[in-house]
Amino acid sequence: MYEFYYDYLKPKYSDCCKLLVTDTDSFCCYIQTEDLYHDMSKNTRNFDQTHPLHTTTNHRIVGKFKSETGSLAPLEFVGLRAKMYSLLIPDNPKESKIRAKETKKSYVNKKVRHDQLLTILKTLKPTPTTFCAFQFTNHVLRTVKINKTCLNAFDDKRYILEDGTGTLAYGHYMILHSG
Q: Which bin fits 17, alpha (ψ -120 to 50), beta or left (φ > 0)?
């Protein structure tokens, strides 16, 4: 993945390409170009089947990328921390992607919206949540009510810059050390 980013995307787009978030098997980039779909037209297997660029050539081939949002271009990205982000698709809200690790997927799908992540990013105030879950202890199954933090902008893996949105990895040479 890093090879693709640094050996293909960065030389091709230079300063018009910015890495937004990475994970073990994925990354999200901001790329400024005339037509990204044309640029990446060889890997369009999860596009709508009526889209002119749809193909199944690279379907289920290890090492090939896919677009998280298919042929729909996201308008906005909000990344609060590792595995907690949202991609807003304005024309089709059902296709918007919201991920919040350690929170039940059903709760995220029903209750969490893109504008909530944006508010958390601006205010830095976490949102508490309560939901029910099954718990199995000592061969006894019961329903329990769980209280936990759902959305939180505190990222213990990154150093947040003064602008409040940019980050650097801890230990980066651009982080000024005090004392």
A: beta
